[in-house]
Design a protein that fits this description.
Elements lengths: L2 H20 L3 H5 L9 E4 L4 E4 H15 L13 E7 L2 E12 L12 E13 L6 E7 L2 H8 L1
Length: about 150
């Protein structure tokens, strides 16, 4: 696969994942990842890697149990702040929002507080197939927790 083809695939897959998340369609978002055991979602600030599609489903379940309206009222647009694509890697910065109105998160009881965080996602692709192997997501955990408090 040449670089232009890979670039097009990466842009399409990342866009599809974000659109699915905006819709709260977690099954569709999970299907953007390659159906391979090494697929992963690395929640870097949580020091936790979720492996395979079932593990990735667990990440979404954990987030939406605490923030039921993540990424801010299903059907809302997630603002993309910046994005870039190079063969095998796409980097996208977004602003995610939600209301901590569900389950406790990191020992913090839900008080209905709005939470807004910037997230940088590093999407790792298989250069031969264009399949999404994983995402490493970075955000300021203390900023998130202080908004919940």
């Amino acid at each position: 696969m040449d670089a232009a083809q890979l670039h097009d695939i990466q842009r399409r897959v990342v866009s599809e994942k974000i659109v699915a998340e905006e819709a709260g369609d977690w099954d569709r978002a999970i299907k953007t990842f390659a159906d391979r055991p090494e697929a992963f979602f690395d929640a870097v600030p949580m020091h936790t890697i979720f492996h395979g599609r079932d593990g990735i489903r667990g990440f979404y379940a954990a987030v939406t149990s605490a923030l039921p309206d993540f990424p801010i009222g299903k059907g809302s647009k997630v603002p993309i702040i910046s994005e870039t694509h190079v063969p095998g890697l796409s980097i996208v910065e977004v602003e995610a929002q939600g209301t901590h109105s569900g389950a406790d998160f990191a020992g913090i009881k839900a008080k209905g507080n709005a939470v807004r965080i910037r997230v940088a996602g590093f999407f790792v692709f298989d250069k031969d197939t264009g399949g999404l192997l994983g995402e490493r997501a970075y955000w300021d955990m203390e900023s998130m927790l202080s908004q919940m408090r």
